[in-house]
Write a structure and sequence with these properties.
The chain is an alpha/beta fold and 345 residues long. The chain folds into two domains: 5-99 and 322-343, 3-Layer(aba) Sandwich (Rossmann fold), CATH 3.40.50.720; 132-314, Dihydrodipicolinate Reductase, domain 2 (2-Layer Sandwich). The protein contains eight helices and 15 strands. It has helices spanning 15-26, 76-88, 130-145, 164-178, 210-223, 257-265, 284-287, 318-334; strands at 5-10, 31-38, 46-49, 52-55, 57-58, 69-72, 92-95, 124-126, 148-157, 197-198, 229-236, 243-251, 270-272, 293-300, 307-314. Helix 1 (15-26) links the parallel strand 1 and strand 2. Helix 1 crosses helix 8.
Length: 345
């Protein structure tokens, strides 16, 4: 067997799980084994990988034996239950849920922003929330030139953020409405097709929903700025895939749009997309299936001398979830912050 890493995907049959498989193949991650794990109801299914059919295995006490890296995308409750078992078996867990993001001992990593944080893992590395990742990639290059003092963001979040079932539900709702029948709701509390509503995560006592507070707290942790002023309004919109965000930034001194464009053009993971004559700026259809965060409509804030406005779109399933996790795994391999068990002993 060639030297490489044994990787398990926890939640392999979900929208992010299948994207993880595609990215591991597309990016030629150094694998010697890929183990697909899911709930008992999904066990036995087969999924294609590198011309083969891999069988999904059920979670169990021996599921992580001889595994080097676990890419977990099965929800917070599953991660809380199984992450310790995976790390006890010797694996490093890259977790896509909210379970460990704000744990002080767990690095919260966006490789374009704070790759060094991954070196300090104690068995678990957290993948940030999708909207936080997309915003962080776009804002970090600007923050390096002149520290951001305040972020005001409004998100326009697609059905993909709630998984494959939600995407299919929105399709069915659209057809039902066009047919003149009542749309059914299961994944969301209200019909999303031809509609929009504030994010359906639970509301906190401060009036912000959990999704909005994720953006506040996670951005502070990733940037290493505990007092960074951030406010967010998160909205579900009838888009299948890719999230959009309108971002207003406040600096201590003027920050010109041209200076921002120059920084973003040179930044990893960002693509500038602006056609002012055609009034064409990033759209979800442009970002879907793309690795880069698309940024455009950069302009000075007329209401504030030190304000800057920008618009971004990014694929929630790729950079907002699966790609960021795979990039963290690549970072661990490149920096040798994880070593394959086959080479130990």
């Amino acid at each position: 067997m060639a030297e490489g890493y044994r990787v398990a995907i926890l939640g392999a049959t979900g929208a992010v799980g299948t994207e993880l498989m595609a990215l591991l193949e597309e990016r030629q991650f150094p694998l010697t084994e890929l183990r697909l794990l899911a709930s008992p109801r999904s066990a036995g299914k087969t999924l294609p990988f590198k011309g083969q059919s891999l069988t999904v295995q059920p979670l169990g006490d021996r599921a992580f034996d001889d595994i080097d890296i676990v890419l977990a995308s099965a929800g917070a409750s599953v991660s809380r239950e199984w992450a310790a078992k995976a790390t006890a078996a010797g694996a490093v867990v890259i977790d896509n849920s909210s379970a460990f993001r704000m744990d002080p001992k767990t690095p919260l990593v966006v490789p374009e922003v704070n790759p060094q944080a991954a070196a300090h893992h104690q068995g678990v590395i957290a993948n940030p929330n999708c909207t936080t990742i997309l915003m962080a990639v776009a804002l970090w290059p600007l923050h390096q030139i002149q520290p951001i003092q305040r972020i005001v963001v409004a998100t326009y979040q697609s059905a993909s953020g709630a998984g494959a079932q939600a995407m299919e539900e929105m399709k069915q709702q659209a057809q039902a409405i066009l047919d003149g029948t009542e749309p059914k709701t299961e994944a969301f509390p209200y019909p999303l097709a031809f509609n929009l509503f504030p994010h359906n995560s639970p509301l906190n006592d401060n009036g912000y929903c959990q999704e909005e507070m994720k953006m506040v707290n996670e951005t502070r942790k990733i940037f290493g700025e505990a007092d960074l002023r951030v406010t967010a309004t998160c909205i579900r919109v009838p888009v299948l895939r890719a999230h959009s965000e309108a971002v207003n930034l406040e600096f201590a001194a003027p920050f010109s749009p041209d200076q921002a464009r120059a920084a973003l053009v040179a930044a990893p993971g960002v693509k500038l997309l602006e056609d002012w004559e055609a009034n064409y700026f990033p759209m979800p259809q442009d970002a879907s299936g793309q690795d880069d965060v698309l940024v455009g409509r950069i302009r000075s804030d007329l209401s504030h001398p030190n304000g800057l406005e920008l618009w971004l779109c990014g694929d929630q399933i790729r950079k907002g979830a699966a790609l960021n996790a795979v990039q963290i795994a690549e970072l661990l391999v490149q920096k040798q912050w994880v070593k394959p068990m086959a080479t130990l002993a």
